[in-house]
Specification:
Layout: H1 14-25, E1 43-45, E2 56-58, E3 64-65, H2 80-92, H3 99-106, H4 110-124, E4 138-146, E5 163-170, E6 175-180, H5 185-195, E7 201-205, H6 211-214, E8 219-223, E9 232-233, E10 240-241, H7 244-261, H8 269-281, H9 290-299, H10 308-311
Parallel strand pairs: 4-7, 7-8
Antiparallel strand pairs: 1-2, 2-3, 4-5, 5-6, 9-10
Length: 312
């Protein structure tokens, strides 16, 4: 009989939680975040009834530390086991999990769990600079509009009152999304140039802003949505011309933002995009299950500390 993943010891016992995090953040043993010392002979685990769990002493700089320092967990009074529960729940929920839902499950205040959610999204932020695509690979590019920009009248015309999102999706691979000011070539072309391999096959809709940049790639497939054209097979090359993959990404993204999170201020949008990019780029189809996905988010927690004042 199989047992629930959420029944694993590190979700319920604080010592097990520290051991679990240490094994992933320090795979080769403890490292002092103050001086960088990694000599196991110069680091000792402090013990005693009054000593906090996981505290170590560095004999180089003489400073105490835990695995939480320099991570999203630093200065948090929330038990580490609850952090691990929150990471697993957010990573395993395809469309995300609201702060209210986490508040009810974890039993911590709504303000605290809202802050935890943003820290976890920061851990999910990849920041990878390697170009997407490559020879024989297809990358689809599209934009969407979501939410509302504070202070902009909805009657301003078209979608000027909404936030603009640009997404690049490699078929069978990862996704990268960007919050941009406008859906113009001035804002889109530099992102495409910085993130795509020139040997890629580019797929877009019929927007004029893609015409010139499309000539710089191995090929540029275009679907004309204005003529109700949503996909076809090129007779010469046999390539499938469509933007269905990126539109599928947007389907999940919008269901999550509208149905789960509901309200998102413009200044926080980039973190929500990082969350949806992370889950898409680490999905089951790519061989990443819920446990592995949560572990990848946990490893991304290093060096990404946020304070409440920073994001409030």
């Amino acid at each position: 009989m199989s047992s629930s993943v959420i029944s694993d010891p590190h979700f319920h016992d604080e010592r097990e939680a520290y051991a679990y995090v240490e094994a992933r953040i320090w795979p080769n043993g403890p490292v002092c975040p103050h001086c960088g010392n990694a000599d196991p002979k110069r680091i000792r685990l402090m013990q005693g009834n009054s000593t906090r769990i996981g505290v170590r002493q560095c004999n180089e700089c003489r400073k105490p530390f835990t695995v939480k320092i320099g991570t999203i967990f630093e200065s948090s009074h929330v038990p580490l086991r609850l952090w691990l529960q929150a990471i697993h729940l957010i990573c395993s929920s395809k469309k995300g999990m609201s702060a209210n839902q986490l508040h009810r499950i974890l039993g911590v205040t709504l303000k605290t769990v809202w802050f935890m959610g943003h820290r976890i999204r920061e851990a999910m932020r990849d920041g990878g600079l390697a170009p997407m695509g490559g020879s024989g690979n297809v990358v689809e590019v599209d934009e969407t509009f979501i939410g509302r920009i504070e202070g902009v009248d909805p009657k301003a015309g078209w979608v000027r009152h909404k936030n603009t999102v640009l997404t690049l999706v490699e078929r069978g691979g990862s996704a990268r999304s960007f919050h941009i000011d406008e859906a113009t070539k001035e804002h889109i072309v530099p992102i495409i140039n910085a993130n795509l391999d020139r040997e890629s096959d580019l797929m877009t809709d019929e927007a004029k802003r893609y015409e010139k940049i499309g000539k710089d790639f191995a090929s540029h497939g275009v679907v004309d949505h204005s003529r109700k054209e949503y996909g076809y097979t090129d007779r010469k090359t046999g390539k499938k011309i469509n933007t269905n993959t990126v539109e599928g990404y947007y389907s999940i993204f919008k269901r999550g933002m509208k149905g789960v999170y509901q309200h998102c201020q413009e200044k926080h949008l980039h973190r929500y995009l990082a969350e949806f990019d992370f889950r898409y780029s680490n999905r089951v189809k790519l061989g990443v299950n819920d446990v592995a996905r949560a572990d990848r988010a946990l490893k991304g927690a290093v060096g990404k500390r946020l304070t409440y004042q920073t994001i409030g």
